[in-house]
Amino acid sequence: MEHVQSPDKHLITVSIAADKMSAHLMYRGGEGGRSFEVSELKELLRAHGVIYGILEDNLAEFANNVSEYVQKPVLIAVGEAPRKGKDGYIRYLFQNEDESAKPNVLDDGRVDFKNINRINNVKRGQVIAERVPAEPGAPGMTVTGEPLPAPKAKEMYFKPGKNVVIDESRVRMYAVIDGMVTFTENDRVNVFPVYEVNGDVDYRCGNIDFVGNVVVRGNILTGFSVKAAGDIRVTGSVEGAEIIASGSIDIAGGIVGNRKGYVKAGKSIRCLFIQDANVEAGDNIVVLQSIMHSTVKAGKQVDCNGAKGLIVGGVVQAGQSVIARTIGNLSYTPTSIEVGFNPDMRNELNQLTAGMNSLTDNLDKTEKALRLLEQMAMNAPLPNEKKQLYDKLQLTKQQLTEQMEQTRERMNELEQALENTEQAKVIVYGTVYGGARIVIGRYTRYIKDAAQRVTFSYANGEVSMYSI
User: Fold this and answer.
1) Residue range 36-84, pLDDT digits in tens
2) Domain for residue 133, yes or no?
3) Would 37 be classed as within a structural domain?
4) Fewer CB within 10 Å of terminal CB in the chain, N or C?
5) Residue span of the structural domain in which 411 resides
6) Residues 64, 41: Cα–Cα separation, whole Å
């Protein structure tokens, strides 16, 4: 704290905190010291720059009972901290899929996917989302009267995808067609039509490549492919097939790859089990039973923590965390679990950096054109075609500014995620066996002896193990 003494009232010390958010008075004389008028103390405080947040009751108490505060500081003024406003958000006006929801596992071990409603159907012209703007905060003040700006509340902007439009006020998003609301990479909102296959994907229907959502009421057999611009839902199982969705993939049964085919989702994947397969998701992968001898990659998390929750053999990678009940087995089967590194994120960050440069150039050109038109308007009214051009440029400027803000926010998210090695974790609620290999970022730990209920994380330059 900064201690300043009055030249004429040397028996009283005014102390101002380093952050200038509080001030104290202290009497330095003997117990039989004189009393002071409140007005005298206020003058003393003003002389030392304390002008805001004075506690009148404390000041009066000090003035009337000085001898009780010998070498005992009393709080005499308190500043006001700035108050952050409320961040903006997008309110979705349909039943949004809960990413954390899990299907019900019945007593006999079967999984009830039928009663999970994740089909977000909407009609053409329906309002599917509203943008709620941020609310500004309130500035603060130090005890010396210096204003403290309020932290800036974060605005949220629409991320439109296919078959949606935004009104001119940039407040509402509408569906252009009848269909199903689907989130794709970077949480873009789309409305896609639905293509249904009533049976297996086999020689009777052939391969599928659809600009919407695909529902397969059967199995997808080896050698066939199903590609969708939205989600893929399968009521049966997937064999050695190629399954690619820009959105999410839900499989009621398992994935038996037989080292053939490939399953990839831009968002998340849910299934019963994975065996001898290559599976990749941009966000999360949820497996209810087991991952056996497979290559599994998730941008965020791999969750294999069901009643069985077994990961044996192969490689499981996640940008943030892997959660399992059991890793490895008594036979020391090599099993690699790797977290804290996401090459796709690094590639996306490079692309966004290039895109930001392009947006900056376009915004600069737009602002120059607007300034030119504004200078013309100062000399004479603009003709109609120039007014229309001005309005169009204003809209372009607004759109570019929003795109830059969204891009900047996404870049910040990616930069934080890429530097998040210290928060990367592997959590084992059952047993991790010898033969397992735990990798966090650039650091590796080989498991020699089995351990129960442990968490692995990065600490002090190594992969450390802690009990849960």
Assistant:
1) 788 888 999 999 999 999 999 999 988 888 877 788 899 999 999 999 9
2) yes
3) yes
4) C
5) 344-419
6) 11
